[in-house]
Write a structure and sequence with these properties.
Two copies of one chain form a homodimer. Chain A has 240 residues and is α+β, with helices and mostly antiparallel strands. Chain A has helices at residues 7-15, 80-92, 158-174, 190-201, 207-214; strands at 25-37, 49-57, 67-68, 71-73, 100-105, 116-124, 140-145, 188-189, 218-225, 233-238. Chain A folds into two domains: 25-174, Alpha-Beta Complex (Nucleoside Triphosphate Pyrophosphohydrolase), CATH 3.90.79.10; 186-238, Arc Repressor Mutant, subunit A, CATH 1.10.10.10. In chain A, strand 9 (218-225) and strand 10 form a beta hairpin. The longest helix of chain A is centred in the last third of the chain and has 17 residues, at 158-174. The two termini of chain A are 34 Å apart. At the A-B interface, helix 1, strand 5 and strand 6 of A face helix 1, strand 5 and strand 6 of B. Chain A binds a DNA duplex (27 and 27 nucleotides) through helix 5.
Chain lengths: 240, 240
DNA sequence: AAAATAGTGTCTCTTAGACACTATAGG
DNA sequence: CCTATAGTGTCTAAGAGACACTATTTT
């Protein structure tokens, strides 16, 4: 892009106006997934995991009081991914995680306010890193498990977007993507990791096969998990 | 989205104006790949294949006389994919093929005309179906092999986009995606198909292993290819 | 027959699924 | 001791790579 710009071109650009054409608003919406333990009281056995996503209750029209994905409009001085990052940080205080574009939603009429295109990003966070901002009165933020979504009033086309995001997440797990580790703390037991995979893939995996496969991607730490009435567990971290 | 809209909400929407916020122009650009035979005169042996992409020589500033991807601006009444489809048809007369979003390019300053976001689609076409429109004086369209791009003046960030599109294409081939068949006529020999894969993956494949794998995806037709000084070849088509 | 490519048989190595076994902590 | 989960050994079947073999067409 190191390119000499002629006087003629400079003049063209000065007279050029994009305002001739109608333009859309462009938004970034974020599907934030986290994994929590289903039953906090159960201290005696490995606890099942529960996949949740973050939704915001809209305080304004349209879809007032409906739940929607966090998001916001892009500014001229940032890439759309930066918009998504900014919004994520505002909602959860999480930064520095991988973002993955999972789709662009541009169906005419998808937003009653007018022509608005949504670029949707998927983010996986460790629930220990999240702090929902409670200092805002403008809206309410809440984590929902996927089962809970059925009875919920979800605004815009966000129910479709969430469904497609979950499919992307399943693909990550099927292909043993490194990104799955973003859902976990820095060190974890293999049993924990297996429960995460089972919750995402919605199936049971056999222990030995799972561990054998995972040894490619994890390495031992010097930590062990103790305090259960069975043998202690070695803790691992992701490689590299 | 069947939702009752209250009087209050209706009023909100009537007074709402997106014009308060600055908006970008949104474009769809298309990386069109086709596969042609490298050496049209060579009638005696299986001919190597050559992967090409379609570029347009810009008649106007900015990047006047530079080569760029075909594309155009989105209209309020269409999805971005429809924009890409419309542009593809205008350039090549091709319709009804799969389009795959490969990326969104929103880096500030990527277009000297102002804030323009590009949604880039990849399309694979059969070269026999393409008819480049020659009736336009506004611009020149031409197919280039990937090698030829090095010395070429390519406008905007389209060189980057092309590189990323080619990576997507490689992934398609690595995963034996059905879409690869879009590059071929309805019936083809397995040797032809193998040359297509070898050109995309830039490596040599062993015949028996390739054929064994491909039998999942193709079925015999009643056509054979004759006229070469060796055994005739069975022709196949994609399954389903 | 020679040249050239079509098409096949089969060995090996790696990986994935199944499943039963041993180990160790707490009660 | 028992119970619960951690962690291992190994059989088998499927898939991928290597490579040599046979078949058929034109010259």
């Amino acid at each position: 892009m190191d390119r000499k710009i002629s006087k003629e071109e400079r003049e063209f650009l000065n007279n050029y106006s994009l305002a001739k054409y109608e333009r859309p608003s462009v938004a970034a919406d974020i599907v934030v997934f986290r994994m929590v333990e289903k039953d906090e009281e159960n201290k005696k056995k490995t606890r099942p995991k529960c996949l949740q996503i973050l939704l915001i209750k809209r305080a304004n029209y349209p879809f007032k009081n409906y739940w929607t994905l966090p998001g916001g409009f892009c500014r001229p001085d940032e890439r759309i991914e930066e918009t998504a990052r900014r919004e994520l940080f505002e909602e959860t205080n999480v930064s520095g995680v991988d973002m993955k574009l999972i789709g662009v939603y541009s169906e005419p009429g998808r937003d009653p306010r007018g022509w608005i295109i949504s670029n949707t990003y998927m983010v996986l966070v460790n629930h220990l890193d999240c702090e929902l901002r409670t200092d805002k009165e403008a809206w309410e933020a809440k984590w929902f498990s996927l089962d809970e979504l059925d009875g919920l009033d979800i605004g815009f086309d966000h129910r479709t977007i969430i469904r497609e995001a979950f499919l992307s997440l399943k693909e990550y797990a099927s292909s043993y993507s490194n990104r799955i580790f973003d859902l976990l703390p820095p060190s974890f037991t293999l049993a924990e990791l297996q429960l995460v995979y089972e919750e995402i893939l919605q199936c049971n995996l056999t222990k030995q096969n799972f561990r054998r496969k995972m040894m490619e991607f994890v390495e031992e730490t010097d930590e062990v998990e103790t305090g259960y009435s069975h043998r202690n567990s070695q803790k691992y971290r992701r490689k590299h």
